[in-house]
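Practice record 12: protein with flavin-adenine dinucleotide.
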Amino acid sequence: MIERILPSDDAAALLELTSDLAERELAPRVDDFEARGEFPRDILRTLGRSGLLGLPYAEQYGGAAQPYEVYLQVLEVLAYHWLAIAEAVSVHTLACYPVAAYGSDAQREEHLPDMLGGGLLGAYALSEPRGGSDAGNLATKAVRDGDDYVLTGTKAWITHAGVADFYQVFARTGGPGPAGISCLLADASTPHITPLAREKTMGLRSSPIAQIAFDDARVPADRLIGEEGTGFRIAMSALDSGRLGIAACAVGLAQAALDYAVTYAGEREQFGQPIASFQGIGFMLADMATQISAARALMLAGARLRDAGRPYSVEAAKAKLFATDVAMKVTTDAVQVLGGYGYVSDHPVERYMREAKVLQIVEGTNQIQRMVISRSLGKR
Ligand SMILES: Cc1cc2nc3c(=O)[nH]c(=O)nc-3n(C[C@H](O)[C@H](O)[C@H](O)COP(=O)(O)OP(=O)(O)OC[C@H]3O[C@@H](n4cnc5c(N)ncnc54)[C@H](O)[C@@H]3O)c2cc1C
């Protein structure tokens, strides 16, 4: 049981609702869906109906106006039970961000209620086959033609490819580098937007991830979010928020691994006693618990800066870096605590370990987080 200090009774009720929903809807289905690689679209609808797909956004547009620190703890609870679902909520929230933060009033009124109400599922299309880390050099083009932009190019690694209702696409409308990039909101049903073959991933197997081809796809010009040339700034600003979400996913996953390992170590006997009584195991569990507490504290510190309207990019990078490295270490150690039984799919820890790896890669690899942090050092 984690001791949480929540900012309101509302937040406490929300966390309880999320736990109940996760125990009822997620826990019984995760193994089956992960084994079959099937995306549980109906669960996302249930989360939407329960108000969990628009938590940090304004009530005026159908959001719940919850502080980011509360939203992150909801994600943590979801990740505890099923990482792919938490990741789906995090990606959807990321995909809504450009409209919520940079859209015109008319765009917000038109698009946000359906996005936040759970009717629509979003995807965030930044990465490309030739570049993920160096997103400022992306090649997908958007050329103005009358009342439309015509999109050509290929996006890569897109979570929710083929199941999303809308794609938040970053494409080049101007010259080279970040200043030539713009942000466009495209309906997934737009002709000539085609999801390609699904990637065969190490973990997150229920989550559809694929390249998306844009082959002269026409997107109405009124779907430009912000001004032409501001797309890279929008993308990076969205990722600041998203990285805190990935940290929350990592904390929830690591906590699940620790709790499983603790229970197992209390039951498994060797040399006539529970393995938890051996200092070698007990100290490993103690380190895992300590690392998770530290990761949660760092994540909440970043969220509280964001909630206070203060700069938080660097703290978000630190939280993403630290929490995802902790998740990798803790899930690997959980496999070790279970010995041979940790290496087979009869227990969830091997899945946790496979899933943790991706968190060190998405939304800026941990090398990129170190770049963000190191560049900030020495600056006032
Ligand atoms: C499961 C999954 C889901 C994803 N979902 C999405 C999504 O929904 N939307 C989306 O847009 N993208 C998504 N991505 C893409 C993800 O963001 C990229 O994979 C990531 O940014 C890295 O890009 P890359 O794979 O091209 O690796 P590269 O950029 O080619 O990097 C390769 C290696 O070089 C290192 N490296 C690169 N530059 C530097 C540097 N300057 N200094 C030090 N090291 C460096 C990287 O850290 C990495 O270790 C997803 C990826 C995965 C695996």
